[in-house]
Amino acid sequence: xxxxxxxxxxxxxxxxxxxxxxxxxxxxxxxxxxxxxxxxxxxxxxxxxxxxxxxxxxxxxxxxxxxxxxxxxxxxxxxxxxxxxxxxxxxxxxxxxxxxxxxxxxxxxxxxxxxxxxxxxxxxxxxxxx
Amino acid sequence: xxxxxxxxxxxxxxxxxxxxxxxxxxxxxxxxxxxxxxxxxxxxxxxxxxxxxxxxxxxxxxxxxxxxxxxxxxxxxxxxxxxxxxxxxxxxxxxxxxxxxxxxxxxxxxx
Lengths: 130, 111
Fold this sequence. Notes:
With 130 residues, chain A is mainly alpha-helical. Chain A contains 3 helices and 2 strands. Chain A is elongated and about 105 Å long.
């Protein structure tokens, strides 16, 4: 099930963690009680499952926080989503334009090589063998 | 269809390599020539692969000569192949019978 908002997602992590923690503690106590092997195996299996889920919740929360922090830094940096221009003095802008013109002129002397697509074999006229 | 006899050969067969608009185009490396039937025709290409001699071996055919080249002038490979027209090889006059020689044995008495 997808959770849309960031706050709802953190709330879902908290809810899951608060449901899981007491169950895990309780099961950890239970498996140490005097029980049949069959029941102990069942309890241990559920305990393992809940610990796996708790671990996944913890990893997801941690990575979510890292992503949120990185996104906030990106948005606060002033270069995202719109990349800003860098203002420079007019004479430097002119110099840049001249450089661009020189580059365009240099590239103008080249053309794409024709891509071969056909080979014709020209037999000519038979001649007597030497 | 081309007809040739075993006394003849094609000398200095050339290639015409063009792009899709019929303009001359270059290929990477030397084109590779091959005969479809070496019992009928053999091919000897020049060092640059841009021409070849086609020699006749024995009557037969039709046989063809193929030429393979790499059209990609960069690091990649785009193989293109060209073929000659079909070539029929017939017996040449030099190996057709032209003389009958009758050899008489030693004369013997009539029975």
